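Entry type: protein chain
Record version: 2
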Amino acid sequence: MINQQRETKKHLDLTPEQIKEYVGKLRNLVIEGKYSISQNNRRRENLNFIEDYKINSDKERKILMNIEYDDFCYAVDNQNSKFAHEVLYVFNKEYVLDNWGELESIDIYIKTNMTQTRKGDDIVIVISFHKRNKPISYLFR
């Protein structure tokens, strides 16, 4: 199966109210357990981050629940042409984590996709969940 890539557009024209609404929906889905963090071989960076910082499901939920609208950086069209209708939201959350006994303040790069299951239920797929590895800027700071 070929995973077709396409040119994507970065969205910076969102308002604080739109992002507050998105974050509210995100929190509700996390509370309901309707989220997953991509942890496959294509998302090795997520796996390594979760392992390095001993992040269990409780800590994942806490980090996701603490996302604020001003942690928002930008939104971007999904690169996969099969999901061209989807918009991914990028946040950078500063969080203190235990790195094998040493507390560290870490910038966590979080890219989310709010979509629906085949049954039509809302769900959040956390595509990226790892230490920030490139420069970012916040839209509302």
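Comment: The chain has one domain: 14-131.
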